[in-house]
Amino acid sequence: MPLELPLHTPRLLLRDFVEADWEAVQAYAHLPEVVRYMPWGPNSETDTRDFIGRALAAQAVSPRLNFELALIWRESGQLIGGCGLTVQNTTHRVGEIGYCLHPDFWGRGCAAEAAGALLALGFEELQLHRIQASCDPENAGSRRVLEKIGMQLEGQLRQNLQLRGQWRDSLLWSILEHEWRGSG
Q: Are 82 and 17 in contact (CB under 8 A)?
């Protein structure tokens, strides 16, 4: 059964990226404050075009295991960020989510709304058992999002990423299917 994309939330549309999205992505992906805790960026135009190319290529893979989706503000049709769900292990049914928004949309609950839609995609459509996410311990906004969508903090990975010449820790979060469904 084909997956039902785009995904709709009260304020957002989550759809596959298209080639023309690169400029809207570049509008936030080049900003140092946006990529402060990300393992990429700040993006050049080439970096962003390459990202869009990888997202388009992933759409054609069957079975599809990588869902990089554009976040569209339904009221205006504006691309305000991106989010993704990657199936990391099909045998154990494990996925990982992530999100990134233009700072004009920070603090409005958009990341939690998008992340909640990704959980539904993972558990309902892809039949995952576990979905995880990670964030920098200093990224208070992302921590709030993960708490809000019901994920539990599992622990801290020490110096697992080298970002811009510095070793950084990551917090590992997860939610299991039965927890998400409320029987947990």
A: yes
The length of the chain is: 184
Tokens of 177: 């299917």
- CATH number of the domain enclosing 68: 3.40.630.30
Residues forming a β-bridge with 94: 89, 130
Q: How many domains does the chain have?
A: 1
Kindly list the distances between the CA atom of residue 172 and the CA atoms of 132, 136, 151, in Å, as whole numbers in the listed order. 7, 9, 10
Task: Kindly report the pTM of this predicted structure.
Answer: 0.95
Q: Whole-number mean pLDDT of the chain?
A: 96
Determine the Cα–Cα distance for residues 97 and 174; give it in Å rounded to an integer: 10
165-182 pLDDT, tens per residue?
A: 999 999 999 999 999 999
Residue 85 has which token pair?
Answer: 């769900």
At 1, is the pLDDT very low, low, confident or very high (cuts 50, 70, 90)?
Answer: very low
Where is 33: in which H helix or E strand?
A: helix 32-35
81: left (phi over 0), alpha (psi -120 to 50) or beta: left
